[in-house]
Design goal:
Distance between the termini: 25 Å
Number of helices: 5
Number of strands: 0
Helix content: over 70%
Shape: elongated
Structural class: mainly alpha
Strand content: under 5%
Length: 112
């Protein structure tokens, strides 16, 4: 990435260009093609990274928490109650798919 692209991206992210317009408007107004492609790559990477981050939080809960979805899974496995384990995994899948769909929708809006 060139210095010009980094400066333009920093200017964008600090809010100098923020206003009442949509993200798509800012992409359309961007002069630098490398800047446009960089922002699109950031949004595309969010789809996987947000879901994986959420899964990582739940795995952390498996080890040290006293409440939450990770605790539900761990407790269910310790007392041999598969209903708790399956419910925890199903909740994890539902929440992860919801996050993925939200990011996909944002990506779809920005590409119009």
């Amino acid at each position: 990435m060139s210095d010009k692209t980094i400066k333009e991206l920093n200017k964008f992210l600090t809010g100098i260009h923020m206003g009442g317009a949509t993200f798509k408007d800012y992409l359309d107004k961007a002069q630098n093609l490398e800047f446009k492609s960089t922002l699109k790559k950031i949004i595309e990477s969010f789809k996987i990274n947000v879901s994986m981050c959420f899964v990582g939080v739940i795995m952390g809960e498996l080890l040290v928490s006293k409440e939450g979805i990770g605790y539900l899974i761990m407790y269910g496995s310790q007392v041999f109650n598969m209903n708790y384990v399956i419910m925890g995994v199903v909740l994890l899948v539902i929440l992860t798919v919801m996050l993925y769909c939200i990011i996909s929708y944002i990506e779809k809006i920005s590409k119009k």
